[in-house]
Amino acid sequence: MGCGTSVTIDNQARRLTTDKTAKNPPSPALTMKAAILIQRWYRRYIARLEMRQRYTWNIFQSIEYAGEQDQLQLSSFFNFMLDNFTQLNGNGPDLISHLLDPVVDPWSDRERQTKYEQITVPESYSGPHLTFPLTVSHTNALLSAFKEQQPLHGRYMLQLLHETKKLLKQMPNVIHLSTTYAKEITICGDLHGRLDDLLLIFYKNGLPSAETPYVFNGDFVDRGKKSVEVIILLFAYLLLYPDHMTLNRGNHEDHIMNLRYGFTKEVMQKYKTHGRDILLLIQDVFSLLPIATIIDNKVLIVHGGISDMTDLDFLSSIERHKVKSALRLPRRSLNYLEVTGSSRQGQSESPGCRQGSCSSSSSLCSPRRSSRLSPRPCLSPSMPSPTDALQVPFLDSFTALPVPQPPREELEWKQVVDLLWSDPKSQPGCSPNTFRGGGRYFGPDVTHRLLERHGMSLLIRSHECKQEGYELCHDGQVITIFSASNYYEEGSNRGAYIKLGRELLPRFFQYQVSRITRKLTLTQRVNVAEGSAVRALQEKLFAHRSELMAAFQQYDTSNSGKIFLQ
Amino acid sequence: MAEDKDSAEAIVAEVHKKISGAFDVFDHEFNKTVDVREIGTIIRSLGCFPNEGELHDVIAEIEEEEPTGYIRFEKFLPTMTKVLMERKFRPIPEDLLLQAFEVLDKQKKGHLELEELTKYMTQEGEPFTQEEMEEMLSAALDPDKNVIFYKDFVSMMTVDDPR
């Protein structure tokens, strides 16, 4: 096998030199061997580049998801504390949950509208002035303003959000669209506050209109620096063309995620006077965004994915605005706790981490323990929760409670979380998404079953960054579409969008926003991305160095300054 | 004797670690399996230079009875260990590579024309795909003269190769 060829090559070395000195043209056999040598060498070079590219990607993705997982862990803890320790009196109001629970709006719609109209806009303001109902001149004015870095005044922002909220209230949880012979529907994925990408899409594909309908599949905000401008444009077009613009909710259309990932900060920075009111309104608007879109009863579009518990009929019936955040479970009484005996052990660390058993009843779960670049280690081994009785810690002992059916609110919340957080996997089955800390991993069998049950042929989702901006899986039944180019780093990935016509055959369009005009070679791109990933990793290590040192010292009992890798 | 055995074990452990590391990078589901199409990249990143034929042989050896499209680590590890320990598919020394280019440079010009290299790479040996050809040209082609100065190309590409 391999040995044979190597020997031939060695002989070749000698023969090559002899041929060179002879003045005859090299034999065809020699030419072929030379070609193979070069090809072999080059393929190996490329493979090394691919390897570097792949682990660079892994680094970025792990850091990204570790952050999200932290968030879920923390929220899980919060929820546990709120549920268990704030109602010990029984009836008293609990102040803590007021901080996180949605505020009940004391003003009526009419009163609010008047209130906003009374906000004065200074003479010095040179940005767009909005009046409702919006017209094309307003959206054009917004486009020009944002290209010139001119912000929209707080009053118009509030009014825009107010109108958007009114409109969304009338919409169902699942939007049904149809294609016609004349026009194709354009479907875009995550934008994450990248205004440049949105403007590029509008430039390449056309502004939203009756001839150019759009579906935006969630994650409009967070991470990027222009989330405010992005949602202003998306909501403005939604108000202008409600029949030709569809916005699906993503896992980042969530006020608690926004606290962590930059949107809240951006709003407060850009709107110093009205920031808080704007944020409260946005909270409502986000929770009113539809969860799913179906085209021609054949194509399902959701932000994250599905699970084996996904039920589109049930989904149509839920009260979606009640699911304010994936990270704040609906309130539950002390009767229903998903606490197992193992959480007792966890008390010395963070007691709140819910020990997710790998049954489909929990959507939040503890991190998978792996030797890899994995975020914080698991508290204690997760145990399957006993199905007939729950051991609930109460004071200093355990009390057994019967397991009741989860309340409807909880089921509704689970449906939404699964649809907004899940990722596809290539092997069959459905398992908890330990990488993200929420939602599921769903296999091709889960996809097939759901699509078949509803007579559909395609699932389009986003949620994951893909190098080419899009990726097919599950035998072509699932398409991931991602529209934020250069997400991790300059040159890291393309963005893409899909156009779908009557035949429902997707056409893909890719692009890449770039500050440099010269095209980078593969090698250069890999070098840039790798450098960036390593720097990001360095930052993480530096930020957590005291924790790391403490952890290392635990293993280094002899204080030698060295530890052995397992 | 005991010493030799220890160092042999240490070497094997070292090799196992390297293989495991390379394998894990492509194990997207964290279940010790990789897509069979990534095996080439993994093997090459471990310092081996198999040609396509040799690669297919290796894959045939480690595939399941009923090919699933996945390769399991338990099957990959022993085969790959053998490949590394026996030093199969050795790297190509720079001067040999240069000679190969010189063979193709029939007129001994010191460079290859764009059409010449393309013809050889896409029609001879184990032909490149269009994508592979474009990628090589993007790095190898001198944009001003539209030719490939293969000596410079080889030096540039072998800069960060392992010994």
Automatic annotation (TrEMBL), chain A:
<dbReference type="GO" id="GO:0030145">
    <property type="term" value="F:manganese ion binding"/>
</dbReference>
<comment type="similarity">
    <text>Belongs to the PPP phosphatase family.</text>
</comment>
<dbReference type="InterPro" id="IPR029052">
    <property type="entry name" value="Metallo-depent_PP-like"/>
</dbReference>
<dbReference type="InterPro" id="IPR000048">
    <property type="entry name" value="IQ_motif_EF-hand-BS"/>
</dbReference>
<dbReference type="GO" id="GO:0005506">
    <property type="term" value="F:iron ion binding"/>
</dbReference>
<dbReference type="Pfam" id="PF00149">
    <property type="entry name" value="Metallophos"/>
</dbReference>
<keyword id="KW-0464">Manganese</keyword>
<feature type="domain" description="EF-hand">
    <location>
        <begin position="543"/>
        <end position="566"/>
    </location>
</feature>
<protein>
    <recommendedName>
        <fullName>Serine/threonine-protein phosphatase</fullName>
        <ecNumber>3.1.3.16</ecNumber>
    </recommendedName>
</protein>
<dbReference type="InterPro" id="IPR006186">
    <property type="entry name" value="Ser/Thr-sp_prot-phosphatase"/>
</dbReference>
<keyword id="KW-0479">Metal-binding</keyword>
<dbReference type="InterPro" id="IPR013235">
    <property type="entry name" value="PPP_dom"/>
</dbReference>
<feature type="compositionally biased region" description="Low complexity">
    <location>
        <begin position="357"/>
        <end position="384"/>
    </location>
</feature>
<dbReference type="InterPro" id="IPR004843">
    <property type="entry name" value="Calcineurin-like_PHP"/>
</dbReference>
<dbReference type="InterPro" id="IPR012008">
    <property type="entry name" value="Ser/Thr-Pase_EF-hand_contain"/>
</dbReference>
<keyword id="KW-0378">Hydrolase</keyword>
<dbReference type="GO" id="GO:0005509">
    <property type="term" value="F:calcium ion binding"/>
</dbReference>
<dbReference type="GO" id="GO:0004722">
    <property type="term" value="F:protein serine/threonine phosphatase activity"/>
</dbReference>
<dbReference type="GO" id="GO:0050906">
    <property type="term" value="P:detection of stimulus involved in sensory perception"/>
</dbReference>
<dbReference type="Pfam" id="PF08321">
    <property type="entry name" value="PPP5"/>
</dbReference>
<feature type="region of interest" description="Disordered">
    <location>
        <begin position="340"/>
        <end position="384"/>
    </location>
</feature>
<dbReference type="InterPro" id="IPR002048">
    <property type="entry name" value="EF_hand_dom"/>
</dbReference>
TrEMBL record, chain B:
<dbReference type="GO" id="GO:0005509">
    <property type="term" value="F:calcium ion binding"/>
</dbReference>
<dbReference type="InterPro" id="IPR011992">
    <property type="entry name" value="EF-hand-dom_pair"/>
</dbReference>
<dbReference type="Pfam" id="PF13499">
    <property type="entry name" value="EF-hand_7"/>
</dbReference>
<feature type="domain" description="EF-hand">
    <location>
        <begin position="92"/>
        <end position="127"/>
    </location>
</feature>
<dbReference type="InterPro" id="IPR002048">
    <property type="entry name" value="EF_hand_dom"/>
</dbReference>
<protein>
    <recommendedName>
        <fullName>EF-hand domain-containing protein</fullName>
    </recommendedName>
</protein>
